[in-house]
Design a protein that fits this description.
The structure holds two protein chains of two kinds.
Chain A lengths: L10 H4 L4 E7 L2 E7 L5 H8 L18 E4 L2 E4 L12 E3 L12 H8 L9 H14 L5 H7 L10 H15 L6 H4 L1
Parallel strand pairs in A: 1-5
Antiparallel strand pairs in A: 1-2, 3-4, 3-5
Chain B lengths: L6 E3 L4 H11 L3 E4 L5 H6 L7 E4 L9 E3 L5 E4 L4 H5 L9 H6 L6 H4 L4 H7 L5 H8 L3 E6 L2 E6 H4 E3 L2 E2 L6 E7 L5 E9 L9 E9 L6 E9 L6 E2 L1 H5 L8 H14 L10 H26 L1
Parallel strand pairs in B: 1-3, 2-3
Antiparallel strand pairs in B: 4-5, 5-10, 6-7, 6-10, 8-9, 11-12, 12-13, 13-14
Helix pairs in contact in B: 10-11
Chain lengths: ~180, ~290
């Protein structure tokens, strides 16, 4: 990735410490040259070009930038890009296949889980981490797992319903999540 | 927001990490969970020249009990590990109560208890919990290890007792002599906000409902530092819990608080909540002891 820096005329600016990292993102293996201060969110958005990961508050509050690192939900604005060296990253772009939406995406569609949509990628990734760990969550479990993700449209009711819809769809033997309600 | 420029090292052993800190001097910071350090660096409140990331050092993610009951928490043990621990419920009620209340679920996946103690934020929850339990921090430097009681470890807001070339490798909670009871309650405006008021209470009795042999009460968010409510804790000693002793401890804890009126609430309200929380934790402990007895 090309980074452009301000030239302040000092030699220190020329000696930018760069590190080469190898990581996997949504199953694809990548190598990147990163400056240590680059945040994971910036590596994903500007480096890899996956802009589904949103930057909301940039202060570890809102959770819009949530991605999975080695299966664990993290706020990508609060992790250095160099820290994913040797690790696996999943973003919202990794949810759908070429032909099919992920049940979480389908759930958000069916239950009107998004209004402006800005918090949605973070909500979905936090929800994915929950469902990977607990395929049969209660409403309380869902609310608890999403408590680090803020929705400024305050559409929480439908977000929770969407995740429960996806959980029902993902469970073996539930053909129609709408009928399961 | 970007942190200012720094050199980054990710050593694979503690010795290597300590060597890097030794050479880096005052301008080096240790990165564990990064949930306080990275935001501070982004806001340029911290601008270290060297960041030593210890996440690749193996063997620091543990929390385990020694045969005698002493609990040890490694530098890379995440809040989420403690939240989902099978070890804490039953033996460590104050810690089990606090773990799910730290920050939010996503931050808990990264942040660490030891890092939280090092960060020494007056509004940090773990400092109160560990202080109420009489815990300590193990620091490792070029000369070996030393154990620092948490009461001496936190020197002031965002200031700890580590030497520049030391790493806090472990937090230690001493074994209970008898049965441990207690809890942690936190008033927050929303999940992830700093505590408006946090109260940690830890007591020990020979048997459930018996004479209190050790007590610790510590307060979060109601002063310029974590407050040890020593007199309040002493009021519980030498007798079984009673409405009388609980009320006295609650009053003394409220008196020990130094709250300030701010956007989270008035000083009067916060002081009142300290009293309520001490009473609530101890009354619950008393009821549970009655059930167990």
């Amino acid at each position: 990735m090309t980074m452009v820096y301000e030239d302040r005329g000092d030699d220190a600016a020329v000696e930018v410490p760069m590190r080469r990292i190898r990581f996997t993102i949504n199953g694809e293996k990548k190598i990147a040259e990163v400056e240590p201060r680059l945040l994971l969110s910036h590596l994903i958005r500007r480096g890899v070009g996956l802009t589904g990961t949103h930057m909301g508050c940039d202060t570890t509050n809102c959770g819009a930038c949530t991605v999975l690192v080695d299966g664990k939900a993290v706020k990508s604005c609060t992790m250095l890009a160099v820290q994913v060296d040797g690790r696996s990253v999943e973003t919202v772009e990794g949810l759908a296949t070429a032909s099919e939406l992920h049940p979480l995406q389908e759930g958000f569609k069916q239950e009107h889980g998004l209004q402006c949509g800005f918090c949605t990628p973070g909500m979905m990734m936090a929800a994915k981490a929950l469902l990977d760990r607990n395929p049969d969550p209660t409403e309380e479990d869902v609310r608890w797992a999403l408590s680090g993700n803020l929705c400024r449209c305050t559409g929480y009711q439908n977000i929770v319903k969407s995740v429960l819809w996806a959980a029902a769809k993902l469970r073996p033997g539930t053909a129609d999540p709408d009928a399961a309600e | 927001m970007y942190p200012s420029r720094f050199r980054y090292e990710a050593p694979h052993s503690l010795d290597e990490a300590i060597g890097l800190l030794h050479d880096g001097g005052d301008y080096a910071k240790v990165l564990a969970g990064g949930q306080s350090l990275v935001p501070l660096m982004k806001l340029r409140f911290a601008s270290p020249e060297l960041v030593v990331d210890i996440n690749n050092v193996p063997g620091l993610g543990y929390h385990r009990a020694d045969p005698d009951g002493t609990l040890r928490i490694g530098a890379l043990c995440r809040h989420a590990d403690l939240e989902h621990s099978d070890l804490l419920p039953g033996t460590q009620p104050t810690m089990a109560a606090a773990a799910p209340l730290i920050a939010d679920p996503i931050v808990r996946n990264r942040g660490t208890l030891v890092g939280s103690l090092c960060h020494a934020d007056p509004q940090g929850d773990w400092a109160s919990v560990v202080l109420s339990l009489g815990g300590s921090v193990v620091a490792q430097g070029p000369g070996g290890r030393r154990t620092i009681p948490v009461a001496d470890f936190v020197l002031g807001p965002f200031e700890n007792a580590l030497h520049p070339d030391e790493i806090a490798v472990e937090a230690v909670i001493p074994a209970a002599k008898g049965v441990r009871a207690g809890g942690y309650l936190k008033l927050e405006r929303r999940v992830g906000d700093f505590a408006t008021v946090g109260v940690a209470v830890s007591i020990e009795t020979a048997a459930p409902g018996g004479t209190v042999t050790r007590a610790g009460i510590a307060l979060t968010g109601v002063g310029g530092a974590t407050i040890a409510a020593t007199e309040a804790a002493q009021a519980l000693l030498g007798q079984p819990l009673s409405a009388d002793s609980i009320g006295r401890a609650a009053d003394l804890a409220a008196a020990a608080a130094q709250p300030r009126t701010d956007h989270r609430g008035s000083a009067e309200y916060k002081r009142h909540m300290v009293r309520t929380f001490v009473e609530r934790i101890l009354s619950r402990a008393d009821h549970e002891a009655e059930r167990a007895a």
